[in-house]
Amino acid sequence: MKTASLVLGILSFLFMFIGFLPCLGALNWLNIPIASVGLIISIIALTQHKPGESNGKAIAGTVMCVVAMLFGIIRLIMGGGIV
To answer: Which of 7, 15, 19, 82 matches a 20 to 30 Å C-alpha distance to 76?
Structure first.
């Protein structure tokens, strides 16, 4: 679960950066659902944390998914994708 949340976080972060390029802002419509799924998976991974295990991957996935969602929504608002 932790690795899956990290992978989805990296993927959504990558889509966020590509979505900032001109004429590719519509990619944020794909980015936001991917980041949402990654956020849900990382929250589940954080709640199933066992003592003695590191949860750095889940925290990194959570942070990347939240940042990618916020910037994707802001980019859609600025570009006129959400009116």
So the answer is: 7
Centre a 10 Å sphere on the Cβ of residue 53 and count the other Cβ atoms it contains.
10
- Mean pLDDT, range 2-14, rounded to an integer: 91
Could you give the percent of the chain with pLDDT greater than 90? 40
List alpha helices for the chain, DSSP H: 2-19, 28-47, 56-79
- Going by pLDDT thresholds of 50, 70 and 90, the confidence category of residue 11 is very high
And the tokens for 72?
């994707």
Cα 70 to Cα 16: distance, rounded to the nearest angstrom:
10
pTM here is 0.85
Distance (Å, rounded) from C-alpha 21 to C-alpha 27? 10
**CB burial of residue 63 (10 Å; 0-12, 13-18, 19+):** middle
